Amino acid sequence: AHLARIDAVDEKVHAFLHVDREGALAQARAVDAKREAGEKLGPLAGVPLALKDIFTTQDMPTTVGSKILEGWVPPYDATLTKKLKAADVVILGKTNMDEFAMGSSTENSAYGPTGNPWDLTRIPGGSGGGSAAALASFEAPLAIGTDTGGSIRQPAAVTGTVGVKPTYGGVSRYGMVAFSSSLDQGGPCARTVLDAALLHEVIAGHDPMDSTSIDAPVPPVVEAARNGSVQGMRVGVVKQFAGEGYQAGVVQRFNESVELLKSLGATVVELDCPSFDLALSAYYLIAPSECSSNLARFDAMRYGLRVGDDGTRSAEDVTALTREAGFGDEVKRRIILGTYALSSGYYDAYYGSAQKVRTLITQDFEKAFEQVDVIVSPTTPTTAFPIGERADDPMAMYLADLCTIPTNLAGNSAMSLPCGLAPEDGLPVGLQIIAPAMKDDRLYKVGAAVE
Ligand code: GLN
Fold it and tell me: Catalytic center at which residues (predicted)?
């Protein structure tokens, strides 16, 4: 049924970069055979899923939305891919994304944009716009995203779906193509809070192949999602997550959510987190710095595209020609920015300062979580904007992640879930819930209560 739905709508939506029809049917049949043989089935047996094209898959290409990896089929499965297979999930294919997960609209994909199923002329968010669009268009009931600065939560918000950025280290990054390693985190995307929790439990947990993976039990997310409640909870509203640039309908739906939390028995506390105002600036130094180092591996020798290798050119020239042809504008912008910020003489002024700001943000969160159990905010300041509107204005694009970035810098957990439609344009609005590190279960407890 999901393959038929993909056939019917994906030409317009363009959520998928690759659909693995044969593989999906074979996996589904294998589940049936197991069931008939009375064998033990995985926890998500037979449930179809759309996988962001940033996770390596042995039996499908992995492009990361870039021409530089066009046609590359990895020799190994990411830990997350392996866990999905072990849970008997049926992987339908790989979803579209901003190139190397850099963007907030999926317009930076080298393979063309994805449409928002609510209005195909608008963006589905990014970088995980393909995964969110697949859910919103009913092409898949579950999807996987990655969130470096908001790429799970912002697409969830603008497509009316649920997305969770787990605690940093909660889901293995082994086999997840690196953008900014100290921020990148894979996580579940779904249409309901409980569905997200069921997927979260399958993909989370310690992995010796990832040195930053947390060696501790997975927070009890499914139990929390089945027992939604905010009775007696302290909920924080941060004053920095408001003001200029926030759309009226987004603010209205957010305020209604705060009232709903109160009526369900929560106490609302106003919080001051002054360092959050610096989060965007710090992020756009740290993320490009790490990316400039991570993307150095795309040298035309190891994988993917190779341009100009005609026997007359040096290896350096082939690398340069390949990068020129294979990387898009936003990726080049970030590599240049990151290389500059890390260069001797500028390192302390830029990268060093950004790391200090990161510590201040973490401290603001620590102080906040002495007073409250969770923090709530709008996920993103506006609803889905038209395709093309911000494409030539990187600063305007970066503002989409104003409310999501502090969480990545601090490494804690956050969810976005739908909280109604904005009256002025009828488009979905996202409510963000933020919890301390390794308290991901609180997101589901609160999310299930207000869903
Ligand atoms: N939009 C942000 C960026 O462009 C976040 C991307 C992400 O979370 N992968 O970096």
Answer: 52 (charge relay system), 127 (charge relay system), 151 (acyl-ester intermediate)
